[in-house]
Design a protein that fits this description.
Structural class: alpha+beta
Helix content: 25-40%
Radius of gyration: 15 Å
Distance between the termini: 34 Å
Number of helices: 3
Order of helices and strands: EHEEHEH
Number of strands: 4
Mean pLDDT: 93
Low-confidence stretches: none
Largest sheet: 4 strands, antiparallel
Strand content: 25-35%
Strand order of the largest sheet: 2-3-1-4
């Protein structure tokens, strides 16, 4: 079943700058081979339910297994019979807006 998730996996209690720990999480997600995209707040991952949630687990545990308290915020969109939703959802909105793309 195709699943698109937006997930934020972040360490707690390691200081103000989290980039190094977040990079470890993103490295695991990118190594999964599933379609993914990272922005300033979330990483989107798309694939079959079990594959996506295995990646979320693996990415979470890369920090948790080091003894780091880890927070996971997740939103999922399960849409049977559809793939490529990570790109298609944005394209539909851009088309309505006249292809203006993203604001900087």
């Amino acid at each position: 079943m195709n699943t698109l998730v937006a997930v934020a996996i972040a360490p707690l209690g390691v200081g103000d700058e989290l980039a190094a720990e977040v990079a470890e999480v993103v490295r695991v997600i990118r190594a999964s081979g599933l379609p993914n995209r990272t922005n300033s707040m979330f990483t989107e991952i798309e694939g079959e339910w079990d594959e996506v949630f295995q990646v979320v687990k693996d990415a979470t545990f890369v920090l948790a297994e080091k003894g780091i308290r880890t927070e996971v915020v997740l939103k999922a969109d399960v849409r049977p019979g559809h793939t490529g939703m990570m790109e298609r959802k944005v394209s539909k909105v851009d088309d309505i807006l006249g292809g203006g793309g993203h604001a900087e």
